[in-house]
């Protein structure tokens, strides 16, 4: 009799019929990421409905020596929420834990369970006249737990920061089943170590986040959005300074995209069109927002663009004239990832370099990739204001998928070696997961890895929380 033979009846007793899924036809969607890049097997999927049930699951799995893989919306890009191929792990889905526990307008906070979908949290905040600012292309399926586990950033980091900046308190079930009740909605709390930051970005390797207190902000009542044609990434870096000097913290979003990125969207996404009659090398999507109605943001944006044209930073520009046009401009940016998949295998690299060095990084890395694989198509886009580029690769036209995939590690090294040369990070907002786990030993400071392993050993001495993710072996 195996450990899972005794574990599954105990889990069924603890969770009831709705909380345990073992039918192979029903668990398939939990075993593969949304892109189909990572797949595994599992002994079962558990779907607890409360923090107490999560605690029961972790206690039972610890006693049986069975590993647990926490999973939110399964929208990640690094395989961090997918089990291994052994079939002995248990996937813990937070999909039934979706409640808004409390919304405190005076304290500007919302307390939600980890399985709550990001879009539903945005809507709950809006219904109370508030804003929860995290915005992602996958916000209709990404969960709060998943965005915390990967420290997601999104398109509004310039103004509001990443999830690490948006969380005040956490409730976490530790690997031994104890519950840390850290749901404090305090802006000031200097009572020792700030433990919540251990779990944000840890990808479920230290415990399971079950609820969070998140910051809210005043609702946005004015917005202005522009789509700007640029001669290159150097112009984007200069343009953001022009806009920031005039708009201050009303600059909420500044996205940059190469022509190759936009061309894929125009070719494969329905209902989109090029705002300009001719193609341009690069584009920026600039958004200002304000809590004041009628704040005159279009005029501020027009002034900034006028200066940009005077300095030869912009080739063309259009300011969105209504919600439908603004949505169509954002669709050109948010459709890139899905559109690239239509071109075959997509090798995704989520990196950060200092903003000032983005132009040189792009030029040098593009050149190195072209030398390594002539005809390779670079799909570069991202949040240039915080230095985060999604530096993704598509195969040369007409080449075989398998041959391109076979060179994935080699091409990743080209990107990451260049990133390291510019004092950057090989993971900006998508996490480490399985995809980059073994690379950390080459690009991370050895002392940092030693400290991280020490934290892991303290909290999860048996190594049962999402094993094989984040930390390299050794």
Automatic annotation (TrEMBL):
Presence of keyword Oxidoreductase: yes
Family matches, as Gene3D superfamilies: 3.30.465.10, 3.30.70.2190, 3.30.70.2740, Uridine Diphospho-n-acetylenolpyruvylglucosamine Reductase, domain 2, Vanillyl-alcohol Oxidase, Chain A, domain 4
InterPro entries listed in its UniProt record: FAD-bd_oxidored_4_C, FAD-bd_PCMH, FAD-bd_PCMH-like_sf, FAD-bd_PCMH_sub1, FAD-bd_PCMH_sub2, FAD-linked_Oxase-like_C, FAD-oxidored/transferase_4, Oxid_FAD_bind_N
GO biological process, one term: respiratory electron transport chain
Cofactor: FAD
Keywords: FAD, Flavoprotein, Oxidoreductase
GO molecular function: FAD binding; oxidoreductase activity
Domain (FAD-binding PCMH-type): residue spans on this chain: 38-219
Protein known as: D-2-hydroxyacid dehydrogenase
